[in-house]
Amino acid sequence: MFSKNVATEYELTRSKAVQQLYEKIDQVAQYDSSVIVLGESGVGKEVVVKRIHEKSPRSRGPFVRINCGAIPEDLMESEMFGYAKGAYSGAKQQSKLGLISLANQGTLFLDEIAELTLPIQAKLLRVLQERHFYPINAVKPVSVDIRVVSATSRNLRQLIEDGKFRQSCSIV
Questions:
Q1: Cα–Cα distance between 112 and 49 in angstroms, integer?
Q2: Secondary structure (3-state) at 15
Q3: Average pLDDT, integer, range 98-123
Q4: Are 141 and 133 in contact (CB under 8 A)?
Q5: With bands split at pLDDT 50, 70 and 90, how would you rate the model's confidence at 9?
Q6: Cα distance between residue 135 and residue 83, in whole Å
Q7: Which of 129, 117, 120 is nearest to 99 (CA)?
Q8: Rounded to the nearest 5 degrees, what angle is found at the Cα of 61, between the Cα atoms of 59 and 65?
Q9: How far is CA 148 from CA 98, 142, 145, in A?
């Protein structure tokens, strides 16, 4: 049994503040621009991101989540961008699609984006600007049509000031 202080999901979604938040999320979802969701751990950032995808014109496309804090730094580039045949000695002789390619025509969710290294941030910025990228060891670019939605609990302003995060957009 729940105590009287614990609200059910139904009661939460009926609150005026949450209804207003959902209205704003639904408005943002209609535009195909990149979005970053900021907030402390446990506040429901992923719920917001999933709703953005579900209410967007891309809702029928894939929703690919990358937990940037869970993938080791030395694997992040190949996981995100994939690699061409023969990219690694001793590796499989076939190419591998990256998670960005798997999100084509849909939404790429970069959870804990503040954990990305500066070189990976630079490559990701190229994807956002040019809509293409080069997998590791590839000579031809891969074009993608994705919407990028990111989330973090870290203070991006401070990370930018400390030179640990690229400023590529305005943080409101």
A1: 12
A2: coil
A3: 95
A4: yes
A5: low
A6: 5
A7: 120
A8: 90
A9: 15, 16, 10
